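Continuing the batch. This is chain 6 of the set; chains 1 through 5 are on the previous pages. Same settings as before, nothing changed between runs. Recording input and output for traceability.
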Amino acid sequence: MTDRPLNLLAGLPPPGTPDEEFLTLLARPGLRIERIVSTGQASPPGFWYDQPQDEWVLVLAGAARLRLDGEAADRRLGPGDHLLIPAHLRHRVAWTSPDAPTIWLAVHLGPDQASTVAVSPS
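Output for chain 6:
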């Protein structure tokens, strides 16, 4: 336990950082909450997430586009936009803003929190 509140918008990596930053904020059996900071990253061509748990994502700042398997167009997300991605619904990050960090709050619900992402080819 900390003696002061933590700020989800503090300590961000600068734009152009080569890798996304993942920070686990809380982990309990069947639950993991993390902050993800994207600085222009997107999923590589042919890469899809296929996760064994539900994931609820909220964009706190920045902008992103997600593609869900079976949908013809990307979903655009900006500050305040959120989405529930059911377990095993393949999805990919099509784009995140390269100009300012995109800050996500991700809540993973369900089994197998230790292995968070299974990757499958397109």
